[in-house]
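As described in the Methods, two query proteins were run sequentially through the folding procedure within a single session, without resetting any intermediate state between them. The first query and its resulting structure tokens are shown here.
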Amino acid sequence: MTWSYGAVVAAIVGVFALGAGIAKQSQGDDLGFFEARTVKAAVRNKLKDPDSAQFGEIHAKRDGQKIDVCGWVNARNSLGGYVGETLFMTWLSGGEPGAVVLASDSPEVIAKMCIDDGIDTPRIRRSAGLLADL
């Protein structure tokens, strides 16, 4: 089997790009694997098409035994089309999820709740109307 120089370079670049994507996904996200899985399952249960869920950024803030969580999810609506990323908020207490609130109707309110709970990112601030779109 003969590998060309270009194929080897492409394979190495691909491995580094994959690694960078994994690292980027976990930055600012202090949820463990099982906590993230629990949150995603709770959010999926609120969706019309749970299998279509595509998760974006997820941020968390620990406060003792409670973990407040805010993030984005994109999923299909009842017509089968993706609606775009929607902000969600929930919490974990004792490993169990609390109520999931989707910001489809009032993203400003959910974003302000996230900020009040200590989850404050530029994207959440834009959703709250506190930063102009860049």
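Immediately afterward, the second query was submitted; its sequence and tokens are:
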Amino acid sequence: MDSRRGTVFGTEDDEQRRRYGMTDDPSGAPNGRILRNEAPYVLEYEWAGEILTWEITSTAEGSRLVFTNVLTDPDAAGPAAAGWEAGLEVVEAQLAGQPITWNPLDRAEELATRGS
């Protein structure tokens, strides 16, 4: 994917679009746009009207990742937090060399139900 500022991107996977509530554009047209890319430290993009920022800084122990998701709908905070928690569990497992033995989408639903 082209990661320059202004590049648009999206998902054509119908199942992901349905599960993540991205059914507003069934054509699969891109719904993201890169706002800032200062590789390898900062990536900021707009996705479905929200701003998402990933920032990596060095620490004495290694690295620190700060993720910010500016939501346009306050009611989406709980489900969004659960989805990101489930996604970051996958990253944690991969970094530890562990296999992913669960479905991240199901895990997000579980976390949202119990109030992550």
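The helical segments are 14-19, 77-95, 104-114. We note this only descriptively and draw no conclusion about the first query from it.
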